[in-house]
Amino acid sequence: MAGSTFGTNFTITTFGESHGKAVGVVLDGCPPMIELSVEDVQKELDRRRPGQSKVSTPRDESDTVEIYSGIFEGKTTGTPIMMMVFNKNQMSRDYNAVKDLFRPGHADFTYYSKYGVRDHRGGGRSSARETIGRVCAGAVAKKILSRSGVTIQAYVIQVGPHKAEKRDLGIVEENIIRTCDLDAAKKMEEYIVEAKEAGDSVGAIVEVIVKGVPVGVGEPVFDRLNALISHAIMSIPAVKGIEFGKGFEAALMRGSEHNDEMIKYGFLSNNAGGTLGGMASGQDIIFRFVVKPASSITVPRKGIDLYGNEKTVITEGRHDPCVAPRVVPVAEAMTGVVLVDLIMSDKAIANYFEKK
Amino acid sequence: MAGSTFGTNFTITTFGESHGKAVGVVLDGCPPMIELSVEDVQKELDRRRPGQSKVSTPRDESDTVEIYSGIFEGKTTGTPIMMMVFNKNQMSRDYNAVKDLFRPGHADFTYYSKYGVRDHRGGGRSSARETIGRVCAGAVAKKILSRSGVTIQAYVIQVGPHKAEKRDLGIVEENIIRTCDLDAAKKMEEYIVEAKEAGDSVGAIVEVIVKGVPVGVGEPVFDRLNALISHAIMSIPAVKGIEFGKGFEAALMRGSEHNDEMIKYGFLSNNAGGTLGGMASGQDIIFRFVVKPASSITVPRKGIDLYGNEKTVITEGRHDPCVAPRVVPVAEAMTGVVLVDLIMSDKAIANYFEKK
Amino acid sequence: MAGSTFGTNFTITTFGESHGKAVGVVLDGCPPMIELSVEDVQKELDRRRPGQSKVSTPRDESDTVEIYSGIFEGKTTGTPIMMMVFNKNQMSRDYNAVKDLFRPGHADFTYYSKYGVRDHRGGGRSSARETIGRVCAGAVAKKILSRSGVTIQAYVIQVGPHKAEKRDLGIVEENIIRTCDLDAAKKMEEYIVEAKEAGDSVGAIVEVIVKGVPVGVGEPVFDRLNALISHAIMSIPAVKGIEFGKGFEAALMRGSEHNDEMIKYGFLSNNAGGTLGGMASGQDIIFRFVVKPASSITVPRKGIDLYGNEKTVITEGRHDPCVAPRVVPVAEAMTGVVLVDLIMSDKAIANYFEKK
Amino acid sequence: MAGSTFGTNFTITTFGESHGKAVGVVLDGCPPMIELSVEDVQKELDRRRPGQSKVSTPRDESDTVEIYSGIFEGKTTGTPIMMMVFNKNQMSRDYNAVKDLFRPGHADFTYYSKYGVRDHRGGGRSSARETIGRVCAGAVAKKILSRSGVTIQAYVIQVGPHKAEKRDLGIVEENIIRTCDLDAAKKMEEYIVEAKEAGDSVGAIVEVIVKGVPVGVGEPVFDRLNALISHAIMSIPAVKGIEFGKGFEAALMRGSEHNDEMIKYGFLSNNAGGTLGGMASGQDIIFRFVVKPASSITVPRKGIDLYGNEKTVITEGRHDPCVAPRVVPVAEAMTGVVLVDLIMSDKAIANYFEKK
């Protein structure tokens, strides 16, 4: 199956490997006449790029995007938008040590098993560099959504045992963790740096809030808003779980607590996380997802080589001790793509035939 | 968007509302020459049907399935299989009291907002009766998978605060909770009955284990095995979160703990839950999902009517105090559909072109 | 691949075989609040049904449709509409003579080769009865289109050597050939009856005209209006070719003749058949397709049996000597489905984001 | 709707406009371990490139392809293959004269009507340059098919009134018309040159023959082999009709003539063109399509400008007087893409589940 396209009416098709020539995306189905500059896209990419801070990989990739099609005189034309970033700072020699090894927790084992190809130069298609194309497309999605007053913001709420107690969304882009609680930020940073110095990595939880989604967005029964967002977010490397509203806590609740009461002007709570029956309820969409600790670490681990021999694996190279801060823009991007796709689909029904 | 079809090569299209004539499914892309009887399907439906026990709704719907196409002389023909159950025990009068009301936590508000239709007779398309079609299709999927030694089992692991400590999978179908720990079963049952007597409902967590999936199943980058399963499971009514392997606990772990070490004959742990890079690793696929407490309760709650007036809402009728035991076969069904779809797609590549 | 679903946002999924229990369709993505009665659908089915006249099969199947879902109080609800017709007048004994034979020109050879199943009772899924589901869905599509002033009409323009010289569209439903020229109708009828008496069948050409399609409908580059219509029409049994506007005659023309000149209020000709660059130009959409003579005839022909032995094949039974009159509503249906799908998709872009 | 992706399991997504930076394609779902070099692709592109001969446009675009992803050490990896050609010889000044004009028979009217964008520099997305991406993907498809012994060949059989009487397929690439009859080639060439000197263009018919397709390829009922090929071929710019086997001539035939008789070792004729019931019959697949005379001519024609004023339109620039010779590789490419997609899908069913 061709698994590199996502979406129905507004689609993204990503391409490229970590150590190939380039990575990018074709965005199709974009409405015409949307103002779009390279800067709009680059701004989002800069939030994702490596080398931003001491808690991300020291690889310094500038990741400069170029737009190859779909734009004329600063506006979208309605035709496919191809955006691409050349790979530059690929130190393949970093990978010589693991050339014949399968790294524990890494996709190189499954890629080799499925495709029979061993690209020893790096993560190949499983690399987080693939998400560059997603962020480019997401920049366009966010631009489109902003015209209708829809905003998406992701932020880190937990790193190891350290949780954000506050939701101060104004400071997210001002701290290197991209968390919403400055007190927690300090502890999270120390926790990550400590793991990094030990050659290890840490897990984290990211929350996403979407404001302004009109009531009814989402397509029963399979393309529910929450189901499509789950598909999109779970397709991001390292994500291992997702929950909406109260999420897993709902197991401990009774209906009389969990169900959000309604009054004339809205809801009295948002335990559902903004969806009812798979459609937006008009409340904020709120969900959380967990990212596992990255697999590329220098702590020695038991692994095997291509021939089945047991080996001790140490992954040198320049990897993220915590991927969460850089996953933030990727999560926003994927959420944006889902929303534009669903909103366009929904209005197809509502506007044309009904309001005519 | 047409949201009632799921899958790419092996697709299910469900139809029908709770108080319409019938509910059912068209399963397309099924391989030919698979032995399939009405009993194979009915057996799974019986696990889903109402009125099974004191912890499910007292509505006694026999839910007898009939197969209308795609079978000849007891075998599939490769053409679409239509399976349908007539709705019988629809006590619409139960709904008169909520005829003009939006029930808190219920999809009637979003359905009305999106479609402008008020089917006061019941849940309509948002009703759990829609999942009958899924279970029928899942019965076929499980039959196909069993030929290749793939098995899927779901079971309840938590109801309210009561957790299953054991994983005794042999007893799951022998207790009305469908849990894997007989000691816990008793407490869970008491907890549900107590809530039921109070006119309330409770949440729960279900775990699913899949054995025998070949390495490599899953299509990077968007149609990862875990992403498609998440899409499928999150599309089941009342599901609010899903996690694979260690799931959200991964936030507390380090890479050196979470990454599953490999030795000559396999893995030393399964923190990943059976996928690496979105493809099956050859280990068991393990995931969990949470179901919220049902919205139809008799505890009075604040709601509004169609005209925006504030009302006290009490949902009489015969509803499940805990949907988890009846969600078990639905989760197995959706997991089966995803797996057959992905395996067929995968082998398309592997077999024909490579091994020829 | 699951080939029984057609469309993207407005989809039809047909099911059923000629000698199974029933044939039908699930129509998904239908806008809500469209008035729809069983009569709206039955009316179209009656135009397709067997036994209408001496130029169609004498099988007298009433083909009574029932709607099982998606309608409430006489209106669509936006959820899947399932429509089904039970098979009644199946004289399987007619097929005993060809039980083990592959009929020349018939799909039983390829079905058996692909699926390994021999349903000796009749055409199975390749039977024209499969088109019943299409006509049901098309009835809904035409209803939707009529709200926007879009009309679709098909009619026979050639049977054997006899061509319609006129385009008198008002008389199409008043003659059993469904042609647009009463003089030609007589000759066509004689020609068909003569072939029928000889146990033979004849080919024909059908033209379709669509009025009122807004400029711009069609999605470059692959989902062009003409490409999707071609896909849809060529999927009808017995259709062997399609052409738009001047069609194959364009090979003989120069650009200065073929290109349609434009003036202030429109075009001076319609050689293109109503599309430019794959999008509707605002002119009438005009295309023609050819149906081959049916394969089920009593003229003895060389064929083989399941075991490869050469046999003389005579197909008794009650078959259409010319399928064209009964293909007319099927072609209208498929054209309608394509148009609703494309218009809904198109307006998704245009309305919501641009006009807001 | 996102219309720039074609295919289900083996997909192509094209991007780029005639006067943008580049045109290209992302090919997804390609099996791994297929040897593929830039030369394999370039060879096909050279057959499509402008400036080949006196019957094609004098624009001399070298159209050099580069592969950006999906290849490692000379073999496909199973991940998306991005191939791109930079636009070089864009003389936008040629278009100044038609800057505000809609050219009769040209897509600039519908593009402007739909998207509201006027890219006066040239054909934009409707330009035949878009087919560069298709030819690149087709080169890969043909490589894959050749491993299984499937070959595709297209050739011109009619230009204006001049028809190829012979089918000498060995000489097709040796004459500038790409016809299969050297005697006809001379007359066709003269006919095209004459039109070219008059500032005019001519139409033509192309035939395609596919050998070696296994019995059963094609997915009933909508994704029939002939229906998908029709979709693919009708999506090529300037194509106005398609027919299989005897095509429109079938209207004149009786069933006893048209139906292909079968004997022990095959068929006695191929009037059907190689499909029965929408699936390959094992015979050669044969179809023909017509290309209209190109719209860009210097013969003065009546047209309108952006504001509705009537104007005389003369399209200077360097255009093809007959597009057929350059459409030949595009038709082969699209046919190849359809076949790989269907074969991969088909074997999904046949191999894995049945032969295991």
- Low-pLDDT runs of chain A: 348-356
Rounded mean pLDDT of chain A is 92
The CATH architecture of chain A would be 4-Layer Sandwich
Structural class computed from helices and strand pairing of chain A: alpha+beta
Could you walk me through the main structural features you see in this protein, from its secondary elements to its overall organization?
The structure is a homotetramer. Chain A is α+β, with helices and mostly antiparallel strands and about 350 residues long. Helix content of chain A is about 30%, strand content about 20%. Chain A has helices at about 40-50, 110-115, 130-145, 180-195, 225-235, 255-260, 325-355; strands spanning about 5, 10-15, 20-30, 65, 70, 75, 80-85, 100, 150-160, 160-165, 205-210, 240-245, 260-265, 265, 275, 280, 285-290, 300-305, 310-315. Chain A has a five-stranded antiparallel sheet with strand order 1-2-3-7-4, with helices on one face. In chain A, strand 9 and strand 10 form a beta hairpin. The longest helix of chain A has about 30 residues, at about 325-355. The radius of gyration of chain A is 21 Å and the shape is globular. Chains A and B meet through strand 1, helix 2, helix 5, strand 12 and helix 6 of A and strand 1, helix 2, helix 5, strand 12 and helix 6 of B.
